[in-house]
Task: structure prediction
Amino acid sequence: MAGNVLNDKTLELIAERFRLLGDPVRLRLLQSLEGGERSVADLVAVTGAQQASVSKHLQLLLRGGLVERRRQGMFVYYSVADDRVFELCNVVCGSLTAYLEKELEHLAGREGDEGPATVS
Amino acid sequence: MAGNVLNDKTLELIAERFRLLGDPVRLRLLQSLEGGERSVADLVAVTGAQQASVSKHLQLLLRGGLVERRRQGMFVYYSVADDRVFELCNVVCGSLTAYLEKELEHLAGREGDEGPATVS
DNA sequence: TGACCATATGAACATAATAGAATATATTAG
DNA sequence: CTAATATATTCTATTATGTTCATATGGTCA
Result:
């Protein structure tokens, strides 16, 4: 966004990538992979989701280029292919924190300002 | 994600924020606001979307704390409340670029590797 | 080969997100 | 007050996304 205008296609790609990160199960998967590669079975256990669901989320992350897979015997190991995801999450965390703090402040400043206690 | 485990609620908040950025119209709105505040009418013109649609997207961004609004007469001016969105977009752009370059490389390496040209 | 295990995929269903038309609200001008 | 304008909201239809169950695929081992 550094001043230049992005065309619709690019914007759609960026949006798509944000959407890819916009699911708590996928975020949990990525977080679980932060320490290194894991098998699907591991990830199923960690997330508590169904195997089919985990597998599909992993395919989405794979097609998006955020993770890689490696087969070893019967097991498939996934790992993070782009560390930027963690940077993104950190920035979002900061943004969220700032937002929530502002909200708190706002609420504190309006204490008891939720409408009249008396009728008419 | 700096090594600590995030609970489900936090993860959902983060995912929600990513989803907020996961729409091309909203990204276009944010980009349009990068140069400073704009009225809704301006934004409708810029995006080419319906007024109702723009208004709804702006409400989403507002509730997410990414933009602020200011009323002046009949007009409402929106502005970016959290510059981190641009940082996020830039990181995503970098991530996308890396991914697409890798894809290209991959394709180049496999040139003509798309199956036999002859039948049986 | 067949039995078995891990992972992926397909189909059906439920839910969420989005757009568009119509309408409501808020503000100013007369 | 009414008319006019800018913005917000409601309602509805449609589409996208996610979950689950069942099944397919790919691999190992006897």
Notes: Residues 19, 23, 25, 49-50, 52-53, 56-57, 71, 73-75 of chain B lie near DNA strand C (CB under 10 Å from a C1'). The first strand of chain B starts at residue 38 and ends at 39.
